[in-house]
C-alpha cells in the first residue's frame, strides 16, 4: 500500500485528509466551478481598471497552492495554474473564524484549491482575489520540493531544489510542477510543431496518418522493435520510418503529403538519440532534393522566427543564423576542404580501408565503400558544420531509396541537414524506378551482414506500388526532438521529451 511508506510529513497530510472526510468534506470532488484562468482574470481586471472600475465580482479561480502567509485574522496565499500565478486574500470578517481556521489547519502547499470572490488591487499594487468562499479540489499527500524565490535586478527568480536530472526525468510531473522554465520548453515545442504544420498546410500539403504497426519495416537504417499479433498469427514491427507508406500515397495521386508522428528504433540512448522519437516526413511530387532544400530552410527558419522573433539563436556556445539561403556542400568537397582527401582518388573498398588505417579511424572490415566514406564524414566534416548546411551527394550503396545523380552511378541526390554539428534531417530525390529499386534491395542483401542495421528488407508491396508509376518526387525527414533541442538551447533530447527512456532502477 502507498500509505505504508509514508514519511511523518506525508502521514500528517494523510491524517488531514481523513479528518476532512470525517467532517463530510470530499478532498477530491468531482467538479470545479472555475470560470476563468488566472491569466484571464488578470486581463479582465486590468481592462476593468482601465475603465475606472476598482473591483470585478463573481470570479472563480482554481490552481495549486504555492504560498501561504498567515497573519492572524488575515491570510494571503498564491495559487498557480498553467497560465499564471495570482494572490488570494482571506479575511476573517469575510469568511468567518471557523473557515479560516479550517483553511490554515487542513490546506498545505501543493494542494489544489478553488476560490471565489471579487478581484481588486491591493495597496502594494498586486491584483488579488478577495476570497468569499473556497473549497479543496485535490489534497496533495506528497509535498512538492521546496523552492526559493530571489529578487535579482528587480525581477523574481525562482530557484528550485529539484535540480538532479535523473530525478527530474523520472518524475517529470514534479519537474513540471516546480520548474516553470521546464513548462516553457514544452510550450515552445508545441509552437515549433504548429509553425511547421502551418507552413506545410499553406503550401497545399495534406497531413496524413500511416501505420505504426507494419508487417515489413523500412525507409531508414535502423533496427526495429518487434511484436506479435495473436489473432493474425503475424510478427509485426514498430515503424522506423513513414517513408514507404507516404510514397504509396504519392503513387495514389496525393501529390503533397506529410506526417508528424512517432518512430521507434531499437538503438542506443544518447544526448541525440531516444528509442521513441518524433519525426516530420514530407513528400512532394514533381520536385527533387533541391526543392526539399528550399522547403527545409524556409520551414525551419520560420519556426525559429515564430518562436523567438529572430533567425539567430544560441546553441552549444555558438551563435547560429538560420537566415536563408543555407550553405550547400558536397561530401567530396567537404573532405577536400577539411581533410585534404579527394574520394575520387580512392575508388575501391581496399583503398579506403588503407586510408582509414593510415588516419587511425576504426572500421569494420568488409564494409561497403559508402559506410567507409561515412566514417570519414563523421570524423572530418560533421563536427565542423555549425552554421546550417546541406551536406549533399551521398554514396549510392548507403542510400538505397535515392535517385542517382545523372551521369554518376556511384552517387545519389541526397542531403542531410547539419546545424550546430548535429544532423537534423535527411532528404532525397526519391528513386521511382521499380526495377532499379528491386536491384538496390537485392544488392544490399548481398553486401551487408545479416545483422547490419542498414540492411533493408525486400518490401514486395512497395515495389508493386512503384510499378504502378510514381512521378518524380522529393522527400524529407526532420527530427522534431532535435530541432526543439536546438531552438530552445538545450544540450540533450531528455530536456525536450516529456518522458524520455531511462535505464531501469535496480532494486
Question: Would you kindly provide a written description of the structure presented here, covering whatever features stand out?
Answer:
The chain has 507 residues and is of the alpha+beta class. The chain folds into two domains: 2-143, OB fold (Dihydrolipoamide Acetyltransferase, E2P) (Beta Barrel); 183-212 and 239-326 and 387-495, BirA Bifunctional Protein, domain 2, CATH 3.30.930. Helix content is 33%, strand content 28%. Strands 8, 12, 13, 16, 17, 18, 19, 20 and 21 form a nine-stranded mixed beta sheet that branches. A hairpin with a 2-residue loop joins β18 and β19 (408-419). α7 (180-202) crosses α9 (289-308), α11 runs parallel beside α12 and α13 packs antiparallel against α14 (460-467). 34% of the residues are buried. The mean pLDDT is 93.
- Tell me the β content: 25-35%
Poorly predicted runs of 5 or more residues: none
Instruction: Kindly name the structural category.
Output: alpha+beta
Overall average residue pLDDT: 93
Q: State the shape.
A: elongated
CATH architectural group of the largest domain: 2-Layer Sandwich
Residues in helices, as a percent range: 25-40%
| Number of separate domains | 2
Name the CATH superfamily classification of the largest domain: Bira Bifunctional Protein, Domain 2
The CATH class of the largest domain is Alpha Beta
The total count of strands amounts to 21
Radius of gyration from CA coordinates:
29 Å
Q: What is the CATH third-level topology name of the largest domain?
A: BirA Bifunctional Protein, domain 2
Amino acid at each position: 500500500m502507498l500509505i505504508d511508506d509514508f514519511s511523518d510529513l506525508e502521514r500528517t497530510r494523510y491524517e488531514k485528509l481523513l479528518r476532512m472526510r470525517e467532517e463530510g468534506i470530499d478532498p477530491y470532488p468531482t467538479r470545479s466551478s472555475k470560470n476563468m484562468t488566472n491569466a484571464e482574470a488578470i486581463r479582465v481586471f486590468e481592462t476593468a481598471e482601465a475603465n475606472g472600475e476598482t473591483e470585478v465580482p463573481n470570479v472563480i479561480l482554481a490552481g495549486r497552492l504555492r504560498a501561504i502567509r498567515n497573519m492572524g485574522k488575515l491570510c494571503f496565499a498564491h495559487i498557480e495554474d498553467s497560465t499564471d500565478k495570482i494572490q488570494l486574500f482571506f479575511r476573517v470578517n469575510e469568511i468567518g473564524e471557523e473557515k479560516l481556521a479550517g483553511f490554515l489547519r487542513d490546506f498545505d502547499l501543493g494542494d489544489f484549491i478553488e476560490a471565489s470572490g471579487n478581484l481588486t488591487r491591493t495597496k502594494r499594487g498586486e491584483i488579488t482575489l478577495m476570497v468569499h468562499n473556497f473549497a479543496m479540489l485535490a489534497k496533495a499527500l506528497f509535498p512538492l520540493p521546496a523552492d526559493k524565490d530571489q529578487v535579482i535586478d528587480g525581477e523574481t527568480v525562482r530557484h528550485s531544489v529539484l535540480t538532479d536530472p535523473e530525478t527530474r526525468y523520472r518524475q517529470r510531473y514534479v519537474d513540471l510542477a516546480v520548474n516553470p522554465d521546464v513548462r516553457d520548453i514544452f510550450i515552445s515545442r508545441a509552437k515549433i510543431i504548429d509553425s511547421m504544420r502551418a507552413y506545410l498546410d499553406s503550401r497545399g500539403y495534406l497531413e496524413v496518418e500511416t501505420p505504426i504497426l507494419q508487417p515489413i519495416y523500412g525507409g531508414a537504417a535502423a533496427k526495429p522493435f518487434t511484436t506479435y499479433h495473436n489473432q493474425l498469427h503475424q510478427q509485426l514491427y514498430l515503424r522506423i520510418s513513414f517513408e514507404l507508406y507516404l510514397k504509396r500515397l504519392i503513387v495514389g495521386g496525393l501529390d503533397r503529403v506529410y506526417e508528424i508522428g512517432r518512430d521507434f528504433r531499437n538503438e542506443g540512448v544518447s544526448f541525440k538519440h531516444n528509442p521513441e522519437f518524433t519525426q516530420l516526413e514530407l513528400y512532394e511530387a514533381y520536385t527533387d532534393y533541391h526543392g526539399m532544400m528550399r522547403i527545409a530552410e524556409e520551414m525551419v527558419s520560420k519556426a525559429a522566427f515564430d518562436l523567438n522573433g529572430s533567425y539567430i539563436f544560441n546553441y552549444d556556445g555558438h551563435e547560429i543564423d538560420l537566415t536563408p539561403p543555407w550553405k550547400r556542400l558536397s561530401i567530396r568537397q567537404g573532405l577536400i576542404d577539411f581533410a585534404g582527401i579527394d574520394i575520387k582518388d580512392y575508388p575501391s573498398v581496399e583503398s579506403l580501408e588503407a586510408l582509414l588505417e593510415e588516419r587511425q579511424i576504426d572500421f569494420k572490415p568488409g564494409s561497403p565503400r559508402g559506410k567507409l566514406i561515412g566514417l570519414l564524414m563523421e570524423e572530418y566534416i560533421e563536427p565542423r558544420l555549425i552554421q546550417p548546411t546541406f551536406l549533399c551527394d551521398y554514396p549510392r550503396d548507403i542510400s538505397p531509396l535515392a535517385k542517382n545523380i545523372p551521369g554518376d552511378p556511384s552517387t545519389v541526390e541526397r542531403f542531410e541537414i547539419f546545424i550546430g554539428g548535429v544532423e537534423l534531417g535527411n532528404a532525397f530525390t526519391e528513386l521511382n524506378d521499380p526495377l532499379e529499386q528491386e536491384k538496390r534491395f537485392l544488392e544490399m542483401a548481398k553486401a551487408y551482414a545479416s545483422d547490419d542495421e542498414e540492411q533493408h528488407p525486400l518490401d514486395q508491396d512497395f515495389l508493386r506500388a512503384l510499378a504502378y508509376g510514381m512521378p518524380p518526387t522529393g522527400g524529407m525527414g526532420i527530427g522534431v526532438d532535435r530541432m526543439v533541442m536546438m531552438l530552445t538551447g538545450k544540450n540533450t533530447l531528455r530536456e525536450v521529451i516529456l518522458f524520455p527512456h531511462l535505464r531501469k532502477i535496480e532494486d
